[in-house]
Amino acid sequence: MESLSRRCITHSPQETIYLGEKLGRYLEGGEFILLQGPLGVGKTVFVKGIARGLQVPTSVYVRSPSFTLLHIYQGKVPLYHFDLFRMKQVEDLASIGWEEYLTGEGVVVVEWGDKFPSCMPSYLSVKLDFAEEENDREILLQSSDKKYISLIKRMFP
Amino acid sequence: MPAATGEIVLGIDTSCDDTSCGIVKGGKKVLSSVVSSQDSIHAPFGGIVPEVASRAHVERIAWVVEEATERAGVSFEQVKAIGATQGPGLPGSLLVGWEFAKALSFAIGIPFIGVNHIEAHLFSPFLDREEEIDFPVLGLVISGGHTLLAYAKEPFRFSLLGQTRDDACGEALDKVARILGLPYPGGPHLEKAAEKGSPRRIKFPTAILPGTYDFSFSGIKTHAWRVFQENKYSREDIAASFQEAVINILASKLLYAINSLPVKSIVVGGGVVANRKLRNVLSHIQTESNIPVYLPSPSYTVDNGAMIAGLAYYLMKEGKASQKEEDIKPALSL
After folding, report:
1. Which residue, among A47, A59, A67, would best test binding to B if mutated, counting the most B CBs under 10 Å from its CB?
2. Which candidate from B90, B164, B166 shows the least CB-CB separation from A70?
3. Concatenated DSSP letters for B279-294?
4. pLDDT tens for residues B113-164?
């Protein structure tokens, strides 16, 4: 299966926001993004960028949904930010109405989605990791799905 | 109890994981409070279910409400209004409690009242309390999902002063516990580890965001990760110093608010109220400022239906009721 990846290094939270924003501008709704990376690496910061790219007003704070499970933001299309860490079993996903969001017109960003591989549709993977310098982050965009391969190509011509 | 008289109101909360129902008389006296994750529930065919196994609100709600009425010794005919959380919360979860409460209230023919979950947390210190709390009140909500400061000149009309820009403080405590490899639930374990460490060993770059009432905890969380990777300090020291940094941020915003606004009382709600170090700091603030600090009893720090019922009583007294057509508001703010 064809697969494509692009690796970026950002040097500050601001640059991480810019990269998220760039991705956000290429999203039209209906996309599914699997977000991975250790605690404190800046996943929420990246989502903040996606929200900006989707024209969510800057007055809206983008916060971590770890306890609340889901945050919804209104941009040019809705942005659904999930954190599935606290979900224990596949049935739990049903109780939060998971499937409804997959078929909607919004953009779905999921943290800890790899816990439930059978529930994930085809996706764009975004992996964040710490790099050598304190504020550096390595961000890897990867997909083996045609739709997202084309998106990565358009983002990084 | 001064409020042993007054109408009986039933309250339902399904904003997040828990299904809960509380029955409150006169807005303050709690007759019963049932929370799905914490209470055993009498199974309909005998025996006791230690914790309703399903996480689905829809499978739990009828049991939880019935258990609450039984424990309170109250029949539906005695209930004068039903309150339900309208938001903020998970849409799918909110909807279950909201529609259940709506249907029940129309079946009995009593008012149905939508309640703001955050306002209810701010109300929680008023439950089961004998003494009057003087206004203006400064309110702090600290939990896994929320961190915010609010202000009310008169009873229960809270407006937002500031909130977290990233993580909630309970969430930050929990995540650092995870970083340190402590068991779940992280908050209490971090507190325990912190008792054996030095709160001054590691300096955290606390973002105070001067001139605002906003909070930020994400930067110190990342710093905790870095410090842990360095392998220079013990878990206990990181836990103690991190906890100290979180409490410092909360205390500095409280102090900023009481120095900027006329405040007669401080109320604090939410799960992080259980943290003993924080309670010490709050009691210190009370002594120094001469402003009484009111905390909810432990069972009302978590999400519960009693706080919804209590606040719904006062909304009912103001003649507020929700209409049949009204819907949930998942993104509701103060």
Report:
1. A67
2. B90
3. HHHHHHHHHHH---EE
4. 999 999 999 999 999 998 899 999 999 999 999 999 999 999 999 999 999 9
B60 vs A: CB within 8 A: no
B170 and B186 in contact (C-beta within 8 Å)? no
Cα–Cα distance, A111 to A43 (Å, whole number): 8
pLDDT of residue B42: 57
SS3 call for A102: helix
Q: Does the distance separating the beta carbons of A68 and B90 come in below 8 Å?
A: yes
Q: Return the CATH architecture of domain A4-155.
A: 3-Layer(aba) Sandwich (3.40)
At A83-118, the pLDDT tens digits run 998 888 888 887 777 888 888 899 999 999 999 999
Q: How far apart are the first and last CA of chain B?
A: 30
CA distance B22 to B306: 4
In whole angstroms, what is the distance from residue B314 CA to residue B317 CA?
A: 5
Which of B319, B279, B314 minimizes the C-alpha distance to B135? Answer: B314
What are the chain B neighbours of A70 within 8 Å (beta carbons)?
Answer: 90-91
Query: Residue B262, preceding bond cis, omega within 30 degrees?
Result: no
Task: Residue count of chain A, please give it.
Answer: 157
CA dist A148 and B13 (Å) reads: 40
Closest CA to B72 of B35, B13, B23: B23
The predicted pLDDT at position A109 comes to 97
Each domain of chain A, given as residue ranges in start order, spans 4-155
Spatial distance between the Cα atoms of B316 and B333, rounded to a whole number of angstroms: 20
Domains along chain B with CATH numbers: 8-123+300-317 (3.30.420.40), 133-296 (3.30.420.40)
Which residues in chain B have their CB less than 8 angstroms from residue A49's CB? none
A63, A94, A134 ranked by CB distance to B164: nearest: A63
| B227 interfacial to chain A (CB closer than 8 Å) | no
ipTM at complex level: 0.80
Separation between Cα atoms, residue A7 and residue A15, nearest integer Å: 14
pLDDT in tens, B26-38: 999 999 999 988 7
For tokens 């501008």, name the residue: A25
Residue A72: exposure state from Cβ atoms within 10 A (0-12, 13-18, ≥19)? middle
Nearest CA in chain B to A98: B92
* 8-state DSSP, B215: B
Backbone angles phi, psi at B289, to 5 degrees: -95, -15
Pairing mode, if any, of strands B293-294 and B48-49? Answer: unpaired
- What pLDDT is recorded for position B4? 64
The mean of the pLDDT values for chain A is: 93
